[in-house]
Design goal:
Length: 149
């Protein structure tokens, strides 16, 4: 797996989104569980599969739903989503994505699709990086951002 230069992807006002499906809450938690080892191993399976050797876990937002949903419904309750939900939904359509049960996003991260090195076994696929407006509320399921500076 190639490493992504994390210094070059930090960008305020951009959210990077990965979507997919996990068979259980436990599998999802294991995938995101952070471990700090001195040997330089990725901090989580998510980090390893995305090539991110580091990310600010305070800017990571993740949600797993029990039932599969359209990307727009899964993204709707997340921070600032009113400002990027249409672009994310359009990207999902262009990529031919069906229902998913998991969304992971990194706020203030401009990850690019050419940085992604997907594997057939990866439960998440990179959807895209989208501008967001921090004054935007979630599009659905709430009236205030889950994340705030």
């Amino acid at each position: 797996m190639k490493q992504v230069d994390t210094a070059n992807i930090e960008q305020q006002g951009v959210v990077s989104i990965w979507v997919g499906s996990f068979p259980s809450a436990e599998a999802f938690e294991d995938y995101l569980r952070e471990q700090y080892e001195a040997d330089g191993a990725p901090i989580s399976r998510f980090a390893g599969e995305t090539g991110l050797d580091w990310y600010d876990h305070d800017l990571l937002e993740a949600q797993r739903y029990e039932a599969p949903l359209a990307v727009s419904a899964a993204v709707g309750p997340l921070s600032f989503s009113a400002s990027y939900i249409n672009a994310a939904s359009q990207a999902a359509q262009q990529l031919g994505m069906g229902p998913i049960n998991t969304v992971v996003l990194l706020i203030d991260c401009a990850y690019a699709s050419d940085q992604a090195v997907p594997t057939d076994r990866s439960p998440l696929k990179f959807l895209g990086a989208f501008p967001y407006d921090e004054s935007s509320a979630p599009a659905e399921g709430g009236d205030a951002p889950l994340y705030a500076r």
